[in-house]
Design brief:
355 residues, single chain, alpha+beta, 5 helices, elongated, five-stranded antiparallel beta sheet
């Protein structure tokens, strides 16, 4: 009986250990004090300094890493002033680290790759602030939360305790780090024949869809410069009609329309991309922000800035596969951190165009 209970205890312990070691699900977006992390569906992770306290950023640091033991690693620093690595300070003390930064001294972007990037990241992992000049009042990168962000990225990629870990490294061989999954493949539809009169079709759809527009869009909108019509198939068009307008962006209602029957237009309910937040009840799946459709690639794009300077928001793409729209990419950043730039990639598909 004691033996049986001992085996049961061992089995339960193994189960608990396996559960604890399970990598976090992806896509994943996390915030750790002054750092944010996004890991996409192929387990590539992007880490960015994004101060909790709002204000204009004086410098930015981004760490990007692919999955797998030999996955590419990059550390990229942006600052508006001249850059001399010898002047860098970690918590007020000189950062004694010999690495060769790429980029010109008077340029905005400076980078490190692979082993040099790994040494740099480990050197600053437990600091509080990275000063980029000898002047304590000069540009700096906050480091609070970086250690936790590194640990999360390592966990997503199965590196905890491995020699390749960004944070808590161990003796595990690089070959023990699993590769992430392959990006899903989306077959985009072939390029359809052009429309005979794209502007006329968009105008006809707007005239025929008055009740629908009144129900789903701003009835007071008078500016329709966002209207566009594009060929979708040999028999159909994709029509985007201006739906509402804000201070620095507009939205359009997406409609699938028979080329010769504007009155039969129907809204296209676009699927939520993996990693995107759960929509609010008032959100309309057929409305996109700053929408654009490219028939040559069969890609519908949308981008929404959280505020005017573009330091937060999302960008999404869908590919038309001949039947409907399939998510192709999704970038997202919830925190407005004061530095405009690329948002964190959370989803990627490989789009292959049919001919």
């Amino acid at each position: 009986m004691r033996t049986a209970w001992r085996w049961i205890a061992v089995a339960c312990g193994a189960l608990a250990f396996g559960t604890a070691m399970a990598a976090p699900a992806v896509p994943a977006y996390r915030e750790f004090k002054d750092w944010i992390v996004g890991c996409d569906n192929v387990r590539a992770c992007t880490l960015k300094a994004a101060p909790e306290k709002e204000g204009e950023a004086t410098a930015a640091l981004e760490i990007w890493r692919e999955s797998g033991g030999t996955g590419e690693l990059q550390a990229t620093l942006w600052l508006a002033s001249d850059f001399d690595p010898a002047q860098m300070r970690l918590d007020g003390k000189p950062l004694a680290l010999k690495v060769a930064w790429t980029g010109k001294a008077d340029g905005e972007s400076h980078g490190l790759k692979q082993d040099e990037a790994l040494r740099f990241v480990r050197a600053i992992a437990n600091g509080r602030a990275l000063q980029l000049t000898a002047d304590a009042k000069g540009p700096a990168v906050p480091l609070d939360g970086l250690a936790a962000a590194l640990l999360f990225a390592d966990d997503v990629q199965g590196r905890v305790g491995n020699s390749t870990a960004l944070g808590k490294a161990g003796g595990g061989a690089a070959g023990a780090v699993p590769n992430g999954p392959m990006a899903p493949v989306v077959r985009a539809a072939p390029t359809p024949p052009p429309l005979a009169d794209a502007a006329g079709l968009a105008k006809a759809v707007r005239a025929a869809q008055g009740p629908l527009l009144k129900q789903r869009c701003d009835p007071q909108l008078k500016d329709f410069d966002g209207d566009e019509a594009d060929p979708l198939t040999a028999d159909e068009a994709l029509v985007l009609l201006s739906c509402w307008r804000g201070a620095y962006q507009q939205a359009q209602l997406v409609l699938r329309v028979p080329r010769n029957a504007p009155a039969r237009a129907v809204p296209v309910a676009l699927p939520r991309p993996p990693g995107a937040p759960v929509p609010e009840r008032a959100d309309d799946a057929a409305v996109v922000s700053e929408g654009d459709y490219a028939p040559d690639t069969a890609i519908l794009s949308s981008a929404s800035k959280g505020r005017g300077i573009g330091d937060c928001g999302y960008a999404a793409q869908w590919a038309f596969d001949g039947k409907g729209f399939v998510p192709a990419s999704y970038d997202y950043q919830r925190r407005c951190a004061g530095a405009p730039g690329d948002w964190l990639p959370l989803y990627r598909a490989r789009v292959e165009k049919e001919r």
